[in-house]
Amino acid sequence: MAVPARLFFLVLAGVLAAAGASADTIPDTASKWGLLGTWRVDCSKQASWTDPDLRYVVRGDKLFHDREFGDRRDSNAVLSATITPDNAIELVIRFDMLSQTRQWTYVKQSDGRIQAVSNRNVDNNEYTVRDGKYLANGNATPLQSRCR
Fold first, then answer.
1. CA-to-CA distance for 79 and 26, rounded, in angstroms?
2. What is the pLDDT of residue 98?
3. What pLDDT is recorded for position 14?
4. Which residues lie below 8 Å from residue 72, measured CB to CB, with a gap of 6+?
5. Which of 4, 40, 62, 85 has a CA between 20 and 30 Å from the CA of residue 117?
């Protein structure tokens, strides 16, 4: 019995190692979910403070969240990207200018648009968006379309 048991554990170890080796990178996860590109509420207008360009781009082997507000731009590293069991994507992004790390969750609509359903400061667990609504005013977060 000792030989079959050892063989079983060797096979199991090989299967687990192969599964770990095939784990997606952050850019792979974003690409599979369909996040790469530029997103905005209204693609026909110029980027502004009320409707910025939100870009998810790969540089080298890393994913970045680039934002353009018309008169200001920034670029921030995405620290993690996870597709949840209900097919949302959860991102953790370090915003250096703000000295904050935020966790965003997006859901995809049947027409391909996305909506932020959660946004929280990881450092103090303070939410600005929960259940698809801004906590400050109770309004629903807008749907964003891929512009390019």
1. 8
2. 84
3. 43
4. none
5. 62
Cα dihedral sign, 136-110-32-21: positive
Evaluated on CA atoms 40, 29, 105, 85, the torsion sign reads positive
Helix, strand, coil percentages (3-state) for the chain, rounded to 5, are: 20, 45, 35
Over the chain (148 residues), the average pLDDT of each successive run of 10 is 45 40 83 97 94 96 96 96 97 92 97 97 96 97 94
Domain boundaries, the chain: 25-146
- CATH tag for 25-146 (out of 1.20.58, 1.10.1740, 2.40.128, 2.60.40): 2.40.128
State which amino acid sits at residue 13.
A
- CB distance 84 to 105 below 8 Å: yes
